[in-house]
Prior knowledge:
Arc Repressor Mutant, subunit A; 53% helix; two-stranded antiparallel ribbon
Amino acid sequence: MLDFCVLLLLRRGPSYAADIILRLKEAELIVVEGTLYPLLSRLRRDGLLSYQWQESLQGPPRKYYSLTPDGLRVLDELDAAWEELARTVGLLKSAPPVLPAPGDVPIRL
Amino acid sequence: MLDFCVLLLLRRGPSYAADIILRLKEAELIVVEGTLYPLLSRLRRDGLLSYQWQESLQGPPRKYYSLTPDGLRVLDELDAAWEELARTVGLLKSAPPVLPAPGDVPIRL
DNA sequence: ATACGGTACTTTGTATTGCAAGGTATTTGG
DNA sequence: CCAAATACCTTGCAATACAAAGTACCGTAT
């Protein structure tokens, strides 16, 4: 899930950790440093992200992460998986409620 | 997620592990015994599920799990959380693509 | 110059969770 | 009485999210 959301965010364009956390928070997704930094490192190690150092106007330089072609491809797959999951949950939610079905075997203690 | 899906399934009525696995598989959710049994135990320990032993016509007796009032309440909360997540992902997905925004600071190497 | 506050990146330890694999028990059929 | 089928459970391992603490860089004020 988080991988998916981070990749979705980065599809808009390069960004760095603190900014990603901010943008996710705006979307009501609470993520902290200790979660995001290892996640970004892992996605980079897997070739889905790359980064460029970029100097900041104030403070230390930042690692701007962006999608690689592989990352974009994986994002498409995650997108399909998400749609599938949403469909599945929709199915489960629309299922008939507690009414006992005709063929149910009665529960004997 | 899995908690949510299992609770959704059990909202239809009591069921036991092997049957839950089957029904989830029909919904394209692959779950195995080693995952489900501890999950059911945990939900029961937390008071969201209860179970009754029920003899089977063929084979050993089964633990039929069903939602408790607490379980139904938590399910409603998870439902709200799911809707919120779906909304969030929808937002992230509908975000503008890679076009550089006007105010972007140019990347300097 | 240097000390401090703010920004950014990283690491370590812990709890949770999903899975593979293997184990126990009960029932039915040969 | 043994084997196959069904059902429940446990153990060990890998992945991941978090809290917390650590390191480093920058600009500013002393």
